Amino acid sequence: MRLQHPTTAACDACGDRFLGQNGLNMHKKKAHRHPTTAACDACGDRFLGQNGLNMHKKKAHMVNIYI
Predict the structure, then answer these.
(1) Spatial separation of the C-alpha atoms in residues 40 and 57, rounded to whole Å
(2) Is the CB of residue 53 less than 8 Å from the CB of residue 47?
(3) Nearest C-alpha neighbor of 21 from the set 4, 46, 12
(4) Is the Cα torsion angle 8, 23, 17, 9 positive or negative in sign?
(5) Helix (H, G, I), strand (E, B) or coil at 50
């Protein structure tokens, strides 16, 4: 049987939960430090700009992007 650790801190931006404030702070710095401007219509992942979104679509969804 695997023990479940109680979570003590939740991200107010996305709802992810962490064991402590340090984990939450690290998450916020990495995941929420820049506003996202482009969202993938296939999976909802968000990116800083159109280039990041295009790269994601090519790799994750094998979509050819023509400009």
Answers:
(1) 7
(2) yes
(3) 12
(4) positive
(5) helix
pLDDT digits (tens, 9 = 90+) for 12-56: 888 899 988 999 999 888 888 777 688 999 999 988 888 889 999
- Is the pTM here over 0.70, yes or no? no
Q: Where are the alpha helices (DSSP H) in 1-67?
A: 21-31, 50-60
Query: Which has the closest alpha carbon to 36: 45, 48, 52, 51?
Result: 48
CB–CB of 42/28 below 8 Å?
A: no
- CA–CA gap between residue 34 and residue 13 (Å, rounded): 12
